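Before our next group meeting I need something from you. Please put the record directly below this note.
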Amino acid sequence: MKVKSIGLLFGGMFIALGLFAAGCGALQGDSTGIEQPREEALLFDTDELYGECRLSNLRDFSGAVLEIPEFYQGKKVVEIGRLSGDASLDEIEKIVLPQSVKKIGDYAFYGMSNLAEIVVSDEAVLERIGEQAFANCSSLTEYALPATVKTVGEEAFTGCSALTEFTVGANVESIEINTFLGCEALTAINVDAENLYYSSRDGVLFDKDKTNLIEYPYGKTTESYTVPATVSEIGAWAFFGNKTLRTIDLNQAIMVRKYAFAECSNLTAISADKIKYAEIGVVEETPWLNNKTNDFIMLGGSLLEYRGSAKAVSLETAVSISPFAFAENKNLKSITIKNGLVNIGERAFYKCENLSAVYMNNTNQMVFIGTNVFGRNAAGRKIYVPRNLYDEYKENTFWKQYSDSLTVHQTVIKFNSNGGSACADGSVEYLGYVGELPVPEKEGYKFLGWYDTPDFAGRKIEAGLSWDSMEAEVTLYAKYEEKKPIVYSINYYPNGGSIAAGAVHTYTAEDDVILPTATKSGYEFKGWYYDEEFTRPAGSGWKKGETGIKYLYAKWEAVK
């Protein structure tokens, strides 16, 4: 049976060992000359796993090399549990695993400070390395995952302070969070080119397509770094604790996950023009954050923290609010969210005990929120949402916690009729539709409509308009134009006579009209008639209120 030594460095020299592992028993010795204990000398706790077993809690062991048996008490060993248990195993420098082990369990080799080498058979079936399996193995310098490994658990190698290089095998499908936390000497995470899920560039770990930067090794000593343009997301804890990085350009990234740059003790400059979302603590304990003096601490479009003391805050440009951004602010009484903001992180307004009015003025979509954004649902707090989105807010899982506070803002409408008849007040909901409006009457004038400014330079308000004002009260002003009377013509047919000077030829309904006299030699004027047959006399004229074009015919009688 072939076995291999996973890459390790001792005193700067790479050592590859060829070892022979017996199936059930233990080696009598190895190339170091150190005698190995037999199986019966090894005392483990066991847990049965469907006819096979898990080993844990190794007792009464001393020595530099530990060979795990393939069989123990007649059962095949398929999993290694936490070996340290109640005892210290600090003397162990090398562990030889049998080919039967499928899983190195949670905390399996936790705290073995002298462990420097793990030997795995070429025929190994190892698939998973559990949570903190190698945590605080501070003598481990290099590690290449066996080709069969598919999953690496959370914080699997955390605290491996001597680890300088790590290789991700071809079959790894999942590397969980904080795998390399505290690996201060780690300068490169390499990935087998055949891996379908992960990739590496300059020792930095990415997903396969390089859209997610997963881990920037602690031990890299460059002072500046530009994230590749393909990256849209910076992973949680990705740069955590780096001591040398001073400037970073996030390029096209739009999301930064939690604690990504926390405790980067020399980080002073971040270029983050494209960032829209940032989770909790992304720049915690960095000079970049500690040196800020302004009220609004922004990372790109994400509001990380509000340090001001204003009672009313309006967010004009933020795309998102990070978790705890306003937490425990005692001054804040109202917050206004404008159209661009789409997400509020968990507990963003936690313990803002005086916050009584929240205006969700994004009219395009519901604003998404994390858990307990406002903490406990304070009595009397109102969360105003647009009329067109009210039902969506009420039905959303996260917003249901605050359903009793959700309401639609009402604006009271006052009508200034500008000398016309009085109109009763009305009201309209935010992003509701304006209903039927009153029509005032003003003698001599025609009503033209309602305007939101007294000089009529503003917007005309009409029924059916979507109302987008959050004012408590708005006055609308009536606009009129003076009625222009219709001018009618008076057409005279004097029948051979002459009309007196100053005769009226036009009139309006507002005019009193006196008809002129006429003269004709040898004739006496008998008056004006509306018809040529002289059956409808016009008299001397008419009073106000008369309308229409007039045709007047002069009647004559010969003088005897």
About this structure: The first strand starts at residue 3 and ends at 5. The first helix runs from residue 287 to 290. The chain has two helices and 49 strands. The helical segments are 287-290, 390-395.
